[in-house]
Design a protein that fits this description.
The complex is a heterodimer of chains A (490) and B (466). Chain A is of the alpha+beta class. Chain A is 41% helix and 18% strand. Chain A folds into two domains: 53-254, Metalloenzyme, LuxS/M16 peptidase-like (Cytochrome Bc1 Complex, Chain A, domain 1), CATH 3.30.830.10; 277-483, Metalloenzyme, LuxS/M16 peptidase-like (Cytochrome Bc1 Complex, Chain A, domain 1), CATH 3.30.830.10. In chain A, 45% of the residues are buried. In chain B, helix 2 (73-80) crosses helix 5 and helix 4 runs parallel beside helix 9. The chains are: A alpha+beta (490), B alpha+beta (466).
């Protein structure tokens, strides 16, 4: 009955509404000569970096503070060395799980009471871990800072680490992994590090449902006690607070927090296998994720200015060659990009796009073509001008909000750069020539080395990939390796 | 600088007052609001804290203005606005802005409006005005079948990437189809149907432009580091000689009554967990009851503290996650309750528990502490929402469109502060009834019986009460 009336309504409304859009033709818009050209810009403002105060507390904790009164807010982030790289082989994901557990409650307040206490202050306290670092952050309106800081320091020094919360978190994380296995984008992101750094490398190992087994509150407690210590850690603070206010607030809260974590073993060299063709099956997906990967130089490399402009021309933004090719010329993708993903001491060149399934092979062909062309032909002066001027002009926007300032400072420290690095970049970019851009491509864009990861409907994608392995094609003679969703060959 | 401080001081004063103090100073954003003779609205918001400007143009047209058979068109049109116009050249928009040092360039479409924006160094303000005026004036000059074909492909890829190829993409369409019978324009989501996108013609693009992209139907906001006389002069230079055109009228289609509860089961090859999703029509954005439902959504579903979150995720461990929201829009809003079930949970038991909690908030007032917690969070969200220049510009535009004045900040906050548990109860009772409810259950393809003839995806059957 319902279906039927529905149908009638459909018919009626079709008759009424499916006529072409009615509009009166526009009146003439008067043209004028000044419209023919881009108007000239006024003089650019000089880049003003925020004033950074760096000092140490008596327990050795380094503090990096930017006091600003733009908004009545305070954001801070305690960062300690060591992230998922600390996971023992076979126990991938356990550091991250323990760090998440620490953020669930305190010794005094169980999960619900703790979350209600935070909510009543509109305070956001969160623990986090990435591959090489972990931390504890806080964001709150200034008026609630004292109480929020007390909760933050309670997590820091007396995390609850309750067995029940651990069991819940573990179950949730296992489910997330399962869910990730049906999303081509999620799966590509999950396996990119493995392709880049190697399946056994601390930066490349993949967390699986099985590798999350065996975590206990005791192992988490041991990790937190051993790693989250003041000497060697750094506290970033940005917001409406002075150094004196900050020190006075922290002093009573951090009394008794002492110590230094053991030095981390150095990371082994990358175990990248060049020229692989890896395929992961997600049946029935409407798109395939195509990824082209190889290693690159460190962010501290003296050739960075030319490298960054070259990468921007090739894959950086909307105007880049790869995006214009895949999206605007061919209409295969909503977007495509290629960037150097920097870690400490190195980087990965990564081109990634989600493309219509029937375009996976042709898209890869075009990506390789663009990489090769970047090496073979000089970029145009217009491309260099655009990316140089854009990079210089874009610097102030990196330092506008508290969150942006915090991220910039953390990133600069992480990559081993001085905090005023941005101030030096305009001159270095200005001095970059077309020859240097081409030399950077020849040194750091390696189509003959690159490995390919494709996630999509294998039955439809495989014949396209085989085209790429024919003589003279970009992956001439490379065998296709099928991986499962955990990155294991099968 | 002093102007910025002035604004933030009043905000700070407001925020340092107790949340419930009746005399708390209302926050004020410094804005200048005027219209050119051709009807273009201009909103200026000076802030000299950084050498940046955000230029944000809103056109009062969205997918809610689409006609049957052309779903997704407003958004497809938005893509065409980046393809070039008479004086700027084909596909040069991003090139020119990138070279200017722009840090954020985009356009977005929702049911009720389309916006185009760029954040760029303050000395490049005029370039943004050149680009925005050129596409407002002369988009059709460079329209070609080729560029339409290309952007249609791009948009269909966008739909694949965001809806067709991801878990729970299907159920978003299903919910709207249950809530909005033909010919309601909210039925197919802003992204639209593939077949409708395919059907779009070049003359549709021209007609849509002629009808909706009139200066009198647009609002230009400039926020950031500029001097007011300069900005006024530049706006005059680039926009004032545009002709006055009639302002198009919107057909406001009321939400069709739902003879509920209506239930649909959707099979999803990408989902790994069952999802149960309840939804109701609810008061429009800024209408009476809208704020109360934001508070109720927080009381039910705020991470870590919401009632359903505590019950289903923490206590019973039946759910992976819970989400509750009041999705506000111009013609009518939707109140959503979504639960992703853990593999071992019993679907019927979970549904019963959710509906029991919904019934409870329709019978007994929620606690004052719950109301207070929600308001504290909303107030805090207002402040953090002011951090970015473009977010501020969009907020001013939203207020201008809906309230008729850009600085609606104090009014907006006041509607939350005026709410209390009794008012929340009254709205809940009116909105969250069984007979107005729609339900979509997502079954992972792998969780379904392999053999058999389950009526899936197309089954729309009234079910019993709660």
């Amino acid at each position: 009955m319902h279906t039927r009336s529905f149908f009638l309504l459909f018919l009626t409304s079709t008759a009424i509404f499916s006529r072409p859009i009615q509009a009166t033709p526009r009146p003439e818009f008067p043209d004028a000569p000044f419209r023919a050209q881009q108007p000239p810009a006024g003089p650019p403002a000089a880049l003003r970096l925020p004033h950074v105060e760096a000092f140490a507390l008596p327990n050795g904790l380094e503090v990096v503070l930017v006091a600003r009164t733009a908004l009545p807010t305070v954001q801070l982030d305690l960062e300690v060395p060591g992230g998922s790289q600390l996971d023992a082989p076979g126990r991938e994901g356990q550091t991250s799980l323990c760090v998440a557990l620490a953020g669930e409650s305190t010794e005094k307040l169980e999960r619900v009471a703790y979350r209600e206490a935070l909510a009543d202050l509109a305070a956001n306290v969160a623990t986090w871990a990435n591959r090489e670092q972990m931390g504890l952050s806080l964001a709150v309106l200034k008026r609630n800072l004292p109480q929020a800081l007390a909760l933050w320091s309670d997590v820091l020094m007396h995390p609850g680490l309750r067995a029940r919360d651990l069991q819940l978190l573990t179950a949730q994380r296992k489910t997330l992994i399962t869910q990730q296995k049906t999303s081509v984008g999620g799966l590509a992101a999950r396996l990119q590090p493995l392709v880049t750094w190697g399946a056994q490398h601390p930066l490349g190992r993949v967390t699986t449902v099985a590798s999350l087994e065996g975590v206990t509150p005791e192992t988490c407690s041991a990790l937190w006690q051993a790693r989250v210590l003041p000497k060697g850690a750094r506290l970033y603070v940005v917001g409406d607070i002075t150094r004196a206010e900050l020190v006075a607030a922290l002093k009573p809260l951090l009394a008794g927090w002492q110590g230094q974590a053991a030095a981390l073993p150095p990371l082994p060299p990358p175990q990248f296998t060049p020229h692989q063709l890896l395929l992961v099956d997600v049946p029935d997906s409407a798109q395939a994720s195509v990824n082209v990967v190889h290693l690159g130089p460190a962010r501290t490399d003296p050739g960075y200015p030319a490298l960054s402009l070259m990468a921007a021309i090739l894959g950086g933004g909307f105007s880049s060659r790869i995006n214009m090719n895949l999206r605007e010329q061919h209409g295969w993708a909503y977007g495509a990009r290629g960037t150097f993903d920097f870690v400490r001491g190195g980087s990965a060149w990564l081109v990634t796009a989600s493309v219509r399934t029937d375009a996976a092979g042709p898209a890869l062909q075009e990506i390789f073509k663009e990489m090769q062309r970047m090496r073979d032909e000089p970029a145009s002066q217009a491309e260099l001008d655009r990316e140089r001027d854009g990079s210089i002009g874009g610097l102030p926007a990196r330092w506008v909000t508290s969150g942006a300032i915090l991220n910039c400072l953390q990133m600069l420290h992480f990559l081993g750069l001085p905090l005023d690095d941005d101030a030096k970049m305009p001159a270095r970019w200005q001095a970059t020539t077309l020859e240097q851009v081409r030399a950077a491509a020849q040194a750091h864009i390696q189509p003959k080395e690159a490995s390919v990861l494709v996630v999509g409907d294998a039955a439809k994608v495989l014949p396209q990939l085989l085209e790429l392995t024919k003589p003279g094609a970009p992956l001439d003679g490379v065998p296709v390796t099928r991986l499962n969703a955990d990155g294991q060959p099968h | 600088m002093p102007r910025q401080i002035l604004f933030f001081l009043s905000l700070a004063a407001f925020l340092t007052s107790p949340a419930w103090a009746a005399d708390a100073a209302a926050p004020e954003l410094r804005t200048i609001d005027y219209r050119l003779p051709n009807g273009l609205r201009v909103i200026l918001h000076p802030d000299h804290s950084a050498p940046l400007v955000a230029v944000d143009v809103w056109y009062d047209v969205g997918s809610g203005d689409e006609v049957l058979g052309r779903s997704g068109f407003a958004h497809l049109f938005e893509h065409m606005m980046f393809q070039g116009s008479r004086h700027t050249g084909e596909d040069q928009h991003f090139n020119l802005l990138r070279k200017s040092g722009a840090s954020n360039i985009n356009g977005t479409t929702n049911t009720d409006r389309t916006n185009y924006f760029e954040v760029l160094p303050a000395n490049q303000l005029e370039t943004a005005l050149w680009l925005e005026s050129d596409r407002m004036g002369w988009l059709p000059d460079l329209l070609t079948q080729n560029s339409l074909n290309n952007q249609r492909d791009v948009v269909r890829n966008e739909r694949r990437q965001r809806y067709d190829n991801v878990p729970y993409g299907k159920e978003r369409f299903a919910i709207n189809q249950l809530l909005y019978a033909e010919p309601h324009p909210y039925r197919y989501l802003t992204i639209g149907r593939h077949e409708d996108l395919e059907a779009a013609k070049l003359e549709d693009v021209r007609a849509f432009f002629d009808k909706w992209y009139a200066p009198s139907n647009a609002s230009l906001c400039i926020a950031g580091d500029f001097d007011e006389p300069d900005a006024r002069r530049l706006v005059e230079k680039w926009f004032a000689d545009f002709p006055k055109m009639n302002r198009p009228t919107h057909v406001i289609v009321p939400p069709p009554p739902v003879a509920g509860p209506l239930r649909q089961v959707v099979e999803d090859p990408f989902a790994r967990l069952r999802r149960v999703h309840f939804a109701w029509h609810s008061p429009a954005h800024f209408a009476k009851g809208d704020a109360e439902l934001d508070i109720l959504a927080s009381a039910l579903g705020a991470p870590g503290t919401g009632r359903l979150e505590q019950l289903l995720v923490h206590e019973k461990q039946w759910a992976q996650s819970v989400s509750v929201s009041q999705a506000s829009a111009r013609m009518s809003s939707v109140f959503h309750v979504t639960v992703d079930l853990r593999p071992e949970a019993d679907l019927a038991v979970v549904e019963k528990a959710v509906l029991a909690e919904i019934a409870r908030v329709c019978e007994e007032p929620i606690a004052t502490a719950e109301v207070r917690r929600a308001i504290v969070s909303i107030e805090s969200g207002f402040v953090w929402g002011l951090e970015s220049l473009i977010a501020r510009a969009d907020t001013l535009q939203q207020y201008a469109q809906t309230l008729g004045k850009p600085d609606g900040f104090a009014w907006d906050l006041q509607r939350y502060r005026d709410a209390d548990a009794a008012k929340v109860l009254l709205v809940a009772r009116t909105v969250l009834t069984a007979s107005a409810r729609v339900e979509v259950v997502t079954m992972p393809a792998s969780a379904l019986p392999q053999a058999g003839s389950l009526p899936l995806a197309t089954a729309t059957t009234p079910t019993g009460g709660k």
